[in-house]
Write a structure and sequence with these properties.
heterodimer, A: 255 residues, mainly alpha, globular, B: 330 residues, Alpha-Beta Plaits, 6-stranded mixed beta sheet
């Protein structure tokens, strides 16, 4: 556990001494701000309209603003994953520091866990910045906080799974660009294959749809804590870890 | 301290290390010598548990590299060919990180950091970013990280490659001063380095160990005869080189004389004498008695270079290829 913390600190230090962390945090905050601004503008416009028409029940902040906003931003977040994971192992392999790590008296799993936790922490910070915008909704409205919390939990889980997959891809190459681009491709595919299930009912499209990372977000964005979808993300983390560990081991046999 | 038995590393197409066996005593510096691609780095990587051997065993500080890699890693300090530095860290941050990786903490860690900063003379750059350091400093920080946990064994892969002559000397002195506290294996393809730094030498070629001995023994072995370098000048007048050569040939013990060059009235010869016959006195007397000047008389040192070429050159490689295979089969 101590060793995990040592690696975790080193990675986080790496993110924050290079422009990576600041760039990602800024970009994500700007993008989220724009989405928020649009969503809020639309929400205010429609709720004014419905009031003027004299409709009896007011519009729901959770259902009509926060939920679509968060599911949009969840997809956007998917495309930040490669930028977080691409350097994790590729850079260590390129500069030769991987030799220091694997010849030190720590286990491979401790290296992997430390790096993954640091990546997750950075993603967590990106999400934390978005809470600033949501805080205004809580100040001027009364949205229910529980579905929001569950949606955020879902976003963290999805990121945790995809970060593990991205980490694995980063072990395959010395080149950060290749690692980043491949991870980007995988994220894109895992998002798009989910669309097929919505209009086709053949078994294979349902399987594809099941494999998509974004389909499993739906219950979370509705405020439902579904066991099966949580399990999906947990197994994604497990697969990512497993492949990373194997890849790290094979690095020793081959190099 | 280190025992290697029949260590072998095979890849799909070729064998990088082929039944290498040797032992290293505590507190000594051993030079691991061989041309590029001979299998030095592979052998070192197996000793540091970076990669497992295909066959054979190695124990470091009493621990087996396959069975107890964790213990081995605790007792080894390793400097790979390129120092494993993180450019975004400062020297002291980096040493702290490596120290923690190796299991140090608290006061002990702080003490060790101060110690290695002094020991490797990198204290003046302790707040500088590693990415901004010169090659010499990077190498020394690399050494500092290797000794941070006071390991029994130090494994240094080409520690002086890419340094300028001054830095090379500084690094060699540093390595020499580390012996005693640590058992050191250093690899190199530079021969004088072994002569200057190491007590014994392992010569490896094409994955096979072709020689293991102390540096002195190896030099003596190659020195079947003493070689002298002589410059003789006529006193005031010019002297024919052949006259000098004829006179020198009459000195007992001299087996071979090669006339090298003549400039004005100075003639230069290379003389080979039989082993154990010290011809230098006779030679000097003969020159002076003939009325010439002896401008220079020095032994042409036999360098490891010649031994090395003998051992790794094609004919030598063909000879030695029989033996290791035989031991491998047995």
């Amino acid at each position: 556990m101590r060793n995990v913390l040592v690696i975790f600190r080193k990675e986080l230090h790496g993110y924050f001494t290079s422009p990576v962390a600041y760039l990602l945090l800024t970009m994500f905050a700007v993008v989220f701000g724009l989405f928020f601004w649009n969503a809020l503008g639309a929400f205010v416009f429609y709720s004014m309209e419905s009031q003027m028409r004299g409709q009896s029940f007011p519009m729901n902040l959770n259902e009509e603003l926060i939920r679509p906003l968060l599911s949009n931003i969840n997809v956007i977040g998917l495309f930040f994953i490669p930028m977080i994971t691409m350097r994790l192992f590729a850079e260590e392999k390129r500069s030769g520091t991987i030799e220091l790590l694997v010849t030190s008296p720590i286990h491979d799993l401790e290296i992997i866990a430390g790096k993954w936790l640091a990546a997750l922490a950075l993603y967590g910070m990106m999400l934390l910045v978005t809470l600033i915008n949501l805080a205004f909704l809580f100040k001027y409205g009364q949205p229910d906080w529980k579905p929001v919390a569950i949606a955020y939990l879902g976003m963290i889980l999805q990121a945790a799974g995809m970060l593990a997959v991205g980490m694995f891809i980063s072990t395959l190459t010395k080149n950060q660009i290749i690692a980043g681009a491949s991870t980007f491709g995988v994220c894109l595919v895992l998002w798009v294959i989910g669309w097929t299930g919505s209009y086709e009912t053949a078994t294979w499209t349902q399987v594809l749809s099941y494999l998509s990372v974004t389909t499993h977000m739906e219950p979370f964005s509705k405020g439902l804590l579904a066991i099966s979808d949580t399990l999906y993300y947990l197994s994604l983390i497990f697969v990512g870890f497993f492949l990373t560990a194997r890849s790290l081991e094979s690095l020793r046999w081959r190099s | 301290m280190i025992t290697v038995t029949d260590l072998t590393k095979r890849y799909a197409r070729h064998t990088a290390v082929d039944h290498v066996s040797f032992e290293v005593q505590k507190g000594t510096i051993v030079g691991f010598l061989g041309p590029n691609g001979a299998g030095k780095t592979t052998t070192m990587r197996m000793l540091t548990c970076f990669m497992p051997p295909t066959a054979g065993t190695a124990t470091v500080a009493g621990f087996d590299v396959l069975e107890q890699p964790h213990e081995v890693k605790k007792h080894i300090g390793y400097l790979p060919e390129t120092p494993p530095l993180y450019p975004e860290m400062s020297t002291s941050e980096y040493l702290e990180f490596v120290g923690k990786l190796k299991g140090l903490s608290g006061d002990e860690l702080a003490k060790r950091i101060d110690f290695v900063l002094e020991r490797c003379s990198v204290a003046d750059v302790k707040d500088k970013l590693l990415g901004k350091l010169s090659k010499g400093y990077r190498q020394r920080v690399g050494l500092a990280q290797a000794i941070i946990h006071n390991p029994d064994v130090l494994i240094l892969d080409e520690p002086t490659s890419g340094l300028d002559p001054k830095q090379i000397n500084e690094t060699r002195d540093l390595i020499k001063s580390l012996a005693g506290d640590h058992t050191i294996i250093l690899s190199t393809h530079i021969l004088p380095e072994v002569e200057q730094t190491c007590q014994s030498v392992l010569i490896i070629n094409k994955g096979r160990l072709v020689a293991k001995d102390s540096v002195n023994n190896l030099q003596n072995r190659a020195r079947g005869a003493e070689q002298l370098f002589v410059e003789i000048a006529g006193r005031g007048s010019d002297v024919d080189s052949t006259v000098i050569q004829q006179r020198l040939e009459r000195i007992p013990g001299i087996s071979h004389i090669v006339f090298k060059e003549k400039q004005q009235n100075r003639s230069v010869f290379e003389i080979e004498s039989h082993k154990d016959s010290f011809v230098r006195g006779d030679l000097a007397r003969a020159v002076v008695e003939s009325g010439w000047d002896l401008n220079e008389l020095r032994p042409a040192a036999v360098s490891l270079e010649e031994i090395f070429l003998q051992l790794t050159g094609e004919p030598a490689a063909a000879e030695s290829s029989e033996a290791p295979v035989a031991t491998g089969a047995a």
